[in-house]
Amino acid sequence: GKGQYRHFMLKEIYEQPAVIGDTLRTFVNPQSRAIALPELPVDFATLPRLTISACGTAFYAGLVAKYWLESVARLPVEIDVASEFRYREAPLPEGGAALFISQSGETIDTLAALRYAKEQGQTILSIVNQPESVIARESDAVLPTLAGPEIGVASTKAFTTQLTVLACLTLAAARARGALDEKRAAALSAALTEVPAHAAEVLNHDEAIEAMAHGIAEARDVLYLGRGPMFPIALEGALKLKEISYIHAEGYAAGEMKHGPIALIDEGVPVIVCAPSGPLFDKSAANVQEVMARGGSVLLLTDAGGRRRIGKGPKWTIELPAVDPFVAPLLYAIPVQLLAYHTAVLKGTDVDQPRNLAKSVTVE
Ligand code: F6R
Predict the structure, then answer these.
(1) How far is the CA of 30 from the centre of ligand 1 (A)?
(2) Residue closest by Cα to atom 3 of ligand 1
(3) SIS domain: which residues (predicted)?
């Protein structure tokens, strides 16, 4: 049941510190904090390319992983939504591997993409939450998310546990490819083991986010911006908002603003900017200034360092824990979930069963 919570979605958001921890414990040695994946039928040292495909929120998890695998593990990744990939007739490299991500393990487009990749001779890996599912059965190896049953139609804890598995996979691939020195590898796995505690801290902002949701609920359109691995978090934030509050929202790579979407900015368009401290911060800060100069109200998700550097200006700021930029996507996913949730509650929608949507999409 929902226990003390008003909706399954809220309960599932609050379960994240625990289920991220459960998922991590299956892949990280608690003493040495070293990543220990099960034996996989893929040699990451020589893998020419990894193809990733999934739908919706699971696709956005894959998009974060593309940033991680390319920059941290130096592994080329190609990624596409399964509904496009399955019909694209993409040539796949000899000796390649393909990874499919699915909470339900039953999504028809993802399954069809998997079967296409198998026909093309790829080794099939999957990340699923339902170990008995058809996608799990048809894979050469399965990396499970231990999110437990997800009842709310809007995916929350499945997403962050997918990211957890993908972060571990990245560190394992980086080790196999000799892409990280030992010190950096140890720092990244240490940062990962601290994510459950930091996720619990993020949840302490729930009331503040609920207050900000009053400003979002009035809007007709909302923009979400991010750079690097925060770009998929912007996409995910926009998806969450539209699917449960029915407010039009778009996620953009912040650097694309000048190429069109900045024309939308006025007093009525809230802009959610996901910008942790790190190498891309100053670029995102410039986008914040551009939005504010045009009268847009900014909701900034950042950390103490970012808040100090931006100064006064954003209408709302949520200060998240300062972490290694590698793990930031796991933490910044949570406030965008809460913002969508509280906005939907204010709008009076059916949060756990939004109109026109099904939990598992088994027909095209
Ligand atoms: C969004 C959402 C959907 C699913 C998508 C894939 O909140 O839940 O976008 O992520 O339908 O579903 P699975 O992961 O079951 O393949």
Answers:
(1) 31
(2) 56
(3) 40-179, 212-354
